[in-house]
Write a structure and sequence with these properties.
alpha/beta; Dihydrodipicolinate Reductase, domain 2; 2 domains; 6-stranded parallel sheet; 27% strand; binds NADP nicotinamide-adenine-dinucleotide phosphate
Length: 313
């Protein structure tokens, strides 16, 4: 199944929750080559758009829809993706691409065998300052990187029980966005050297994490993730190099070199993701990078576990 630039690409959206409404639906509507053709939603979907409560029923009823975008929590996404790929559909995955690394790699193999596109998205990589940061760092010697990702879970994830359950990632749900930027902008890979994960005594996933990574030529990366931040929120990455200090702030939206703001412009994270999905389908390619998820898996493998007071919404 292929599309050309002249075709309209029909997309079905499954899991119509916060991110689907905030970002996916407007991004699809804003792209002249895309159309939201149907939804799969247990809670009703989108006004004016055909909805199927059951995803298998949607796949059976609409063989004409070539692509699906999966926006449900990571713990259940794999099953939806397998059904879609087996039905010959191109698949876009919200981040994180799955609840485990191995299930994502299995999906990649399944998509290859089926000859369909699989796109594991990392929306933060499309923030306005990220490409310019990557270009600036490419020929520098990087000595130190500090990541500070601190936000108020009560504000950003009210009542999201899945995020505290196994596979929900806890504070790594936002933290993996920082790791997706890190793994995009660094010229060479780093590996986790130490981690401390802090779990509320009544929750299965961490509320805070401190990570250390080592890289080439003595590069050290420190990351502090914390969900207990009230007041100003921080989504910042700072890199000390032989040619000055680079700062990405506001989740990658703003870039400064030696505290001087740099002019960066982007078309928006989610519009960029859908443009890329359409391009990948047209080119018959997939894009599945598990590097950010590998770092999270390493943190769960190597992390010292600390217990803190219970968390209640
Ligand atoms: P959410 O609103 O809590 O849930 C998304 C939707 O998934 C629900 O409304 C529901 O849709 C469906 N769903 C929930 N539990 C399900 C289950 N057990 N089985 C099948 N479907 C289920 O979550 P969200 O905030 O949109 O996050 C979804 C994904 O997007 C996560 O991986 C998250 O990391 C990522 N993301 C979120 C944000 C954000 O700001 N929230 C930002 C970037 C990425 P229906 O009622 O329609 O079935």
């Amino acid at each position: 199944m292929t599309v050309t630039e002249l075709d309209t690409l029909d997309i079905a959206l499954a899991g119509v929750g916060k991110i689907a409404r905030d970002q996916h639906i407007p991004a699809i509507a804003g792209h002249p080559g895309l159309r939201l053709a149907a939804t799969s939603s247990r809670s009703g979907g989108v006004a004016g758009v055909e909805n199927h409560e059951d995803f298998a029923a949607l796949l059976a009823a609409r063989p004409d829809i070539p692509a699906v975008s999966l926006c449900m929590p990571p713990q259940v996404r794999h099953g939806y993706a397998v059904d879609a790929i087996r039905a010959g559909r191109h698949v876009m995955l919200e981040k994180p691409p799955g609840a485990s690394v191995s299930e994502v790699l299995a999906l990649k193999a399944l998509a290859e065998k089926a000859g369909v596109t699989l796109f594991a998205t990392w929306h933060s990589r499309h923030a306005a300052g990220v490409a310019a940061a990557k270009a600036w760092l490419a020929d520098k010697t990087i000595r130190k990187v500090q990541i500070t990702w601190k936000e108020d879970v009560r504000h950003w994830h009210p009542g999201q029980d899945w995020i505290w359950e196994p596979g929900g990632l806890g504070v790594f749900d936002p933290g993996i966005n920082a790791l997706s930027i890190l793994t995009e902008i660094l010229p060479a890979p780093v590996h986790l050297s130490a981690a401390e994960l802090t779990f509320p005594e009544n929750r299965a996933q961490p509320i805070a994490a401190a990570l250390r990574f080592a890289g080439e030529d003595g590069l050290e990366v420190a990351a502090e993730f914390d969900w207990r931040q009230t007041g100003p929120q921080s989504w910042d990455i700072a890199a000390e190099t032989d040619a000055g200090r680079l700062t990405l702030s506001e989740g990658g939206a703003k870039l400064a070199i030696d505290d001087v703001p740099q002019g960066v412009a982007g078309s928006g994270e989610y519009p960029d993701l859908y443009r890329r999905f359409a391009e990948l389908i047209a080119a018959g390619q997939s894009d599945v990078d598990v590097a950010p998820l590998l770092h999270v898996a390493d943190a769960f493998l190597m992390g010292r576990r600390l217990i803190t007071e219970p968390f209640h919404d």
